[in-house]
Amino acid sequence: MASRLFSLKYHPKCTLDPTFHGALPKCKLNKKTKNFLFQYKPCFPSSSTCIKRSTSLSSLTPQLEEILVLEEDERPLCQIWKEIQGCNDWDGLLDPMNPHLRREIIRYGEFAQACYDSFDFDPHSKYCGSCKYQGAHFFEKLGMADRGYQISRYLYATSNINLPNFFQKSNLSSVWSTHANWMGYVAVCTDEEEIKRLGRRDIVISWRGTVTYLEWIYDLKDILHQANFTKDPSIKMELGFYDLYTKKENSCSYCSFSAREQVLAEIKRLLEYYDGEEISITITGHSLGAALALITAYDIAELGLNLVEGGEFSNKVPITVYSFAGPRVGNLKFKERCDELGVKVLRVVNVHDKVPTVPGVFANEKLQFQKYLEEAVSFPWSYAHVGVELALDHTSSPFLKSTNDIACAHNLEAHLHLLDGYHGKGRRFCLVNKRDIALVNKDSNFLKSDYGVPPYWRQDENKGMVRNSDGRWVLPERPRVEAHPHDISHHLEKILKVASTSSQLKDA
């Protein structure tokens, strides 16, 4: 038994590969403690604390408190997916962290990261502001072809809003669009094995954050605007977020429908197409994309689009938001309405990140008298977070260096790294899914230099340049992506009917 234990030492003098961060083999201790995982504690102890292969089990007893012991959830995901999606507000799943939940949060975080990795934000490119890849090859180009999802449609928004630093524009006179930016995508799980593993067909909506990370935060006017998705004027959201979601530009083919109209029409279409199946709607995003994810979830639920008739399964499609480093979106009434509608939100934050603390610095959900301020005093700058918070701390990871760079604390890949090592409050940081630590430096300089991973290393080969038939290096032309499906107006008309029927039922 003891011969199966590897050295727990993480030190340059040891023989372990310094980039090793996987799990140790499973060890059966006795009938009551089967299927536990012993895993190393990624710290830097003295050489005398190394546990050698020849060490007996009895000699490990003094060190057991220093070793993280994890119990694998033996239930298949397909049996507990509703719990993992938050039907019970993740009660009992976060501390200690349920292994299924950890994997699912990371998986959806990678869907959000795909928005950054595929977005063309090079001002020297005439395609700046668009997606680099066609939908049919999107996941393949990003090394995610094995996820079992296919792009259903791309989402666009107009730059004619109050958040100028969010948009990327080309320096060239000939551009793909002067008004639009690619904002994200809708994807559907189509692989039968993955559907079986998940226990349902999953629809994913992923919204892009800003590639300049924090500049957009200075554009927030901290003005609450009536949501206008309901007759209740007391439900409000931040003006910049509202504009980004609802504005359109008739002169631009990509923005002739607002981001809101695009995503709602697509959800309506997909729910009709997969009528009778068990379905989930999962929405994800990082930073400003997290704000859009929450607004989308609220909008779908407020309109009642997730209420489907007939079929073998429940007639309410669950809506879950996995939010990463997201700001506050709306007032306390907005939060309360999201709760009433059953929108489930898990907010993953880094305690050192400033973005989740705004807007609403002075009046927020932590204030005891917030409800009084909103209802009696009508305080105009009152905001509240929605959902359950999962707070991470980047100082707990021995892989990350100490830095005052606020962009590092906000970085999405860093959040995913922290998730891989998080097991609960006060528990040792220990990576379990063998997620490559080099990904942290994909678009940051956050890893310790000991690991030899260059900062900001991800880019297209030759920065996208290819050699043509004449031997010249050029940027290749990209096939033009269809702006909107031909039936978008048809599905929007159905949404208006749904909203009208829902309104009549409320009035009755």
Walk me through this protein's architecture.
With 508 residues, this protein is α/β, with parallel strands linked by helices. The protein has a single domain (78-392, 460-507), classed as Alpha/Beta hydrolase fold, catalytic domain (Rossmann fold), CATH 3.40.50. It is 26% helix and 14% strand. It is built from twelve helices and 14 strands. The chain has helices spanning 77-84, 99-117, 138-141, 192-198, 239-246, 259-273, 288-303, 332-341, 370-377, 406-410, 412-421, 488-507; strands at 26-27, 36-39, 68-71, 149-158, 180-189, 201-207, 224-226, 236-238, 279-286, 319-324, 344-350, 388-392, 466-467, 473-474. The strands form four sheets. Strands 4-5-6-9-10-11-12 form a seven-stranded mixed beta sheet, with helices on both faces. Strand 9, helix 7 and strand 10 form a beta-alpha-beta unit. Helix 2 runs antiparallel to helix 11, helix 5 (239-246) packs across helix 7 and helix 6 (259-273) packs across helix 12 (488-507). It is globular, with a radius of gyration of 24 Å. The relative contact order is 0.12. Mean pLDDT is 85; it is low at 1-68.
| Total number of strands | 14
CATH class: Alpha Beta
The secondary-structure element order is EEEHHHEEHEEEHHEHEHEHEHHEEH
According to CATH, what is the topology?
Rossmann fold
**Biggest β-sheet description:** 7 strands, mixed
Beta percentage is: 5-15%
Global mean pLDDT? 85
Question: What is the total domain count?
Answer: 1
CATH A-level architecture: 3-Layer(aba) Sandwich
| Fraction of helical residues | 25-40%
What is the CA-atom radius of gyration, in angstroms?
24 Å
CATH homologous superfamily heading: Alpha/Beta hydrolase fold, catalytic domain
> In which order are the strands of the major sheet placed?
4-5-6-9-10-11-12
Distance between the termini: 69 Å
InterPro entries: AB_hydrolase_fold, Fungal_lipase-type
Pfam families: Lipase_3
Keywords: Chloroplast, Hydrolase, Lipid degradation, Lipid metabolism, Plastid, Transit peptide
GO molecular function: galactolipase activity; phospholipase A1 activity
